[in-house]
Amino acid sequence: MTNSQVGPTQHIQHKIPRDHTATYLSGAEILIKELERLGVTHIFGYPGGAAINIFDALYDSSIELILSRHEQGATHMADGYARASGKIGVVLVTSGPGALNTVTGILTAKMDSVPLLVISGQTNSGNLGKDAFQEADVFGVTMPLVKHSRLILSTEDIAPSVRRAYKIATSLRPGPVLLDLPKDISAKKISYDPGAPLAIDAVLAEKALSPEQLLACRDMARLIMNSQRPLLLVGHGAIISGAAAEVTMLAETLQCPVTNTLLGKGAFSEQHPLSLGMLGMHGNAYANYATTRCDLILSIGSRFDDRINGCNEEFCPLAKKLHIDIDPGEIGRVVQPDAAVLADAKMALREILRHIAPLPTAAWLQELGEYRQLHPLRSGPTAGGLARATTDPSLRAAQVLEALNEVLPRGAVVTTDVGQHQMWAAQFILSESPRTWLSSGGAGTMGFGLPAAIGVQFARPDATVVAVVGDGGFQMVQAELATAAIHLLPIKVLIIDNQCLGMVRQWQELFYNNRLSSVLLEGNPDFLVLGAAYGIKGFYIDQPSQMADVLQEALAYDAGPCLIHARVVSEDNVWPMIPAGRSAGDIVLAPPTVRLAMPTGST
Amino acid sequence: MIDLDTKPPFLNGTERVFTLHLQVRRELGIIVRVALIFSRRGLDIAAFNLEESAAAACALIKLRFYGNAAQKDSVCRDLIKLVDVERMWTGEMPREVPQSVCSYAKNEFNQLVVAGEHL
Question: Domain B16-114, what fold?
Answer without folding.
Answer: Alpha-Beta Plaits (3.30.70)
